[in-house]
Design a protein that fits this description.
It contains 25 helices and 9 strands. With 649 residues, the protein is α+β, with helices and mostly antiparallel strands. It folds into 3 domains: 322 residues, no CATH class; 82 residues, Alpha-Beta Plaits, CATH 3.30.70; 134 residues, Alpha-Beta Plaits. The longest helix has 22 residues.
């Protein structure tokens, strides 16, 4: 063994130990390993950061941005509703949800797919009287399994493809992983969703209620081609039962009904007042084809500078009625009680000549959603959105109000704001921050609330499909094709420009970029061949099939305790060296690495999706192996025969 081989093997061993220790972040460990290799002369200083320009790294970054765009525009919300029917039993519902997660993970980042479906999983658990973990763990495993089916499904596949290209054999195609990947994913999903979920320990959910703002009341308009048009209120509410949402009011032709008849048919232009959880708001709107009323451009009616705040005189009583005081915004028009009194349909928050906020500047500012808590000393107490002129003065939209334990029957924009209310605001980052400071509101931590945008959702779907087609049919290299997709997202404003960089998981990018030169040094020093030869001589003893199983199991074991992308980067040179020692094709060994790196089911630290469900599922570290061990055994049993058939040795 040469000095260089000894050093690189020591670096690899130290890297793996630090990954397992978990005291330092994975990207820190990877950079430290790279610098040690540079100082030891194993990696030329001029090539130390060449990994940042590697096609695999560029592709991973672009896929993260595209996945984020699909998630935030609501492009997959309709798919979720169709793929997970509301009238199935618990087993079939878990099967449908897990299969959907696996399908989405094939074409978008599996962490993004998991984040998208987690609220749905928690709702399903509550509906079927199950603990959240019984649904969350199968979903997590399903999204991990789905990633192994395509080139872009998970970073390990891209890394494996990059190593194949470095050997001169060319990169793997978009669907080269599909024959074996679909079989393994299908068997795994069928097991964990149909039978395995019963093996999940029953744990109470932790931390779920620590961020509960209650339900929101929001106004949404029935669109002409929406699913709600023509349905009765009862039929619409039956659809909304899946999301624990309900219709609590209706506005039609300037009349407000706080308790509309269940047999009243909804017509285009009607405004329905919906009570829903914040995380399910997007799904509610997508399912019924509704559009937020506040998202509609404001009326051209001008607000006068001296108008009286309607919130000053309009008071809600404890039984939900009003005193009928005149609403100064529209010269005496009033909201109604249950008898259907006339109400204003527009609160006239159009920009005026006195708008000093600068509409042009606001038009260029990134639009976000932010929850604001009304403090007891807030200047908004007793006032309304129309009275404060939230839209015309500040360029903001009030989308919904959460009021614990009470339902207001006023129109959203003329509702008097109270201490403890939570306002869901839409507008520019700086505008919302300035508004919060001026009126003494406290912003809540940003969470996964998004409002579907049909135009952007269609654009995101078309661009993503085009990027996948460009890579799949060899029209462009994968990195170029997906980079073009990101550029189109930016041009079409599918993703706000500032959010493009926020959507990238930079620790993962740094991890990959730093380990690629280290892995290359493992091959160039001959250490990979030496390690492969040792494994083959001591265990496989020259038997290719045993060596293939060994590579798969070792990769799978490492992936349970360290980042799957790091596992792939470490194991690829060993797999290529093993194939060279045996005189067989490298493809089956590389595919074994790809499958093994995607089978991290024994611990909560092997994959981000497993970590995501740790708190919401109430799990302990040792809970994962009960379902994870049989899942990994199934993966080995299914994949090895197929590898030998699809990728002959």
């Amino acid at each position: 063994m040469t000095t260089d081989q000894t050093v690189i093997l020591a670096v690899l061993a130290g890297t793996i130990l630090l990954f397992l220790w978990g005291r330092w972040r994975h990207d820190m460990v990877a950079v430290a390993s790279l610098l040690v290799c540079v100082l030891a002369g194993l990696v030329p200083a001029s090539e130390a950061f060449s990994g940042f320009g590697h096609p695999a790294v560029i592709t991973v970054a672009c896929v993260l941005v595209l996945s984020w765009g699909l998630q935030t525009t609501g492009a997959v919300d309709a798919l979720v509703q169709r793929a997970v029917p509301a009238n199935l039993g618990p087993t079939l519902t878990i099967v449908a949800l897990t299969a959907l997660g696996a399908a989405l993970s094939a074409f978008m980042n599996n962490v993004g797919a998991m984040a998208l479906l987690m609220p749905v999983a928690i709702q399903i658990a509550g509906k079927h009287d199950l603990t959240p973990g019984k649904v969350l763990m199968p979903l997590s495993f399903g999204t991990i399994l789905g990633g192994m089916t395509t080139l872009i499904g998970t970073p390990p596949n891209l890394i494996v493809s990059a190593f194949r290209e470095d050997t001169g054999m060319g990169s793997f195609g978009m669907f080269d992983f599909t024959p074996v990947g679909v079989a393994v994913a299908g068997a795994g999903v069928l097991f964990v969703a149909a039978l395995g979920w019963r093996l999940v320990p029953t744990r109470e959910q932790k931390g779920a209620a620590s961020f509960d703002t209650g339900t929101y009341l929001t106004e949404a308009r029935v669109t002409e081609n929406g699913k709600a048009a023509g349905k009765t209120v009862r039929e619409a509410e039956q659809i909304l039962e899946e999301f624990d949402a309900q219709i609590v009011g209706l506005v039609r032709n300037e009349f407000r009904l706080s308790a509309p008849s269940p047999w009243r048919r909804l017509a285009p232009g009607d405004i329905v007042v919906i009570e829903a959880e914040p995380e399910t708001l997007a799904s509610v709107l997508s399912t019924l084809g509704l559009r937020l009323e506040e998202a509609v451009p404001p009326s051209p009616i001008r607000e006068e500078e001296g108008q009286r705040d309607p919130g000053e005189n309009d008071r809600d009583t404890s039984d939900g009625t009003q005193d009928g005081t005149q609403d100064g915004t529209h010269g005496g028009s009033q909201d109604s009680t249950q008898d259907g009194t006339r109400v204003p349909t527009q609160d006239a928050e159009a920009p005026t000549s006195g708008d000093t906020g600068g509409s042009k500047e606001r038009g260029r500012e990134e639009v976000v959603l932010q929850e604001l808590v009304i403090m007891p000393t807030s200047g908004l107490i007793g006032r309304s959105a129309a009275g404060v002129r939230i839209r015309s003065r500040y360029g903001l939209n009030l989308l919904a109000i959460s009021r614990q334990g009470r339902r207001t029957i006023r129109r959203l924009r003329s509702t008097s704001i109270r201490p403890g209310d939570v306002l869901l605001m839409q507008g520019g980052v700086e505008a919302i921050a300035g508004f919060a400071v001026e009126f003494g509101c406290v912003p809540l931590a940003v969470r996964g609330i998004h409002i579907p945008d049909t135009r952007k959702a269609i654009a995101a779907t078309v661009v993503m499909a085009g990027a996948i087609a460009g890579a799949a049919f060899g029209l462009l290299p994968a990195a170029v094709s997906f980079a073009a997709g990101v550029l189109m997202f930016m041009v079409l404003r599918v993703v706000p420009l500032r959010k493009v960089y926020e959507a990238v998981d930079w620790p993962v990018i740094v991890l990959l970029a730093a380990l690629i030169p280290v892995a290359t040094a493992t091959a160039t020093t001959g250490a990979a061949d030496l390690l492969a030869r040792s494994l083959l001589d001591t265990i496989a003893q020259g038997q290719p099939v045993i060596a293939l199983v060994l590579i798969l199991v070792v990769t799978m074991t490492l992936s349970d305790f360290m980042n799957n992308a790091a596992t792939a980067a470490v194991m690829c040179p060993i797999a290529i060296g093993a194939a060279a020692q045996l005189g067989t094709a490298a493809d089956p060994f590389l595919m074994a690495v790809a499958i093994g790196a995607s089978c991290a089911f024994l611990t909560p630290i092997g994959h981000q999706n497993n970590t995501l469900i740790l708190g919401p599922g109430g799990f302990r570290f040792g809970d994962y192996w009960r379902l994870g061990l049989p899942t990994e055994i199934i993966a080995v049993a299914v994949s090895v025969p197929l590898l030998l058939v699809v990728w002959p040795l």
